[in-house]
Amino acid sequence: MVGIIPFFVLKPGRAETLLIFTRKAGQKIRIGDDTEITVLEIRRGCVKIGIKAPRGLSIHREEVYRNIIEENLSAAESVFNPEVRLDDMDISIADRDSIRKKE
Length: 103
Fold this sequence. Notes:
The chain is α+β, with helices and mostly antiparallel strands. It has 2 domains: 24-55, no CATH class; 60-103, no CATH class. The chain is elongated. The strands form 2 sheets. It has a 3-stranded antiparallel sheet, with no helix packed on it. A two-stranded antiparallel ribbon has the order 1-2. The chain has helices at 62-79, 93-102, and strands spanning 2-8, 15-21, 28-31, 35-43, 46-52. The longest helix has 18 residues, at 62-79. β4 (35-43) and β5 (46-52) form a beta hairpin.
């Protein structure tokens, strides 16, 4: 059974659709030509899935993906703050630039 259910994301004015599948253990879902998701096991409310995809495709659990995004945002913000210390070396960005000029 396949159904398409609209849902709303946090970005105002954008609605996306969520494709819902019902699968049993051993059944697969294909995404494009080269990505395959297999339901390996269903036990006590947990679903174990296997994903076969190209090596270059990043695949993360949602909580890991959110942590990556938060770390990237923090890193990007620190680049624009000259008081942020780099690598526990107690060197500010301004000091780093002057060190590079001496080399």
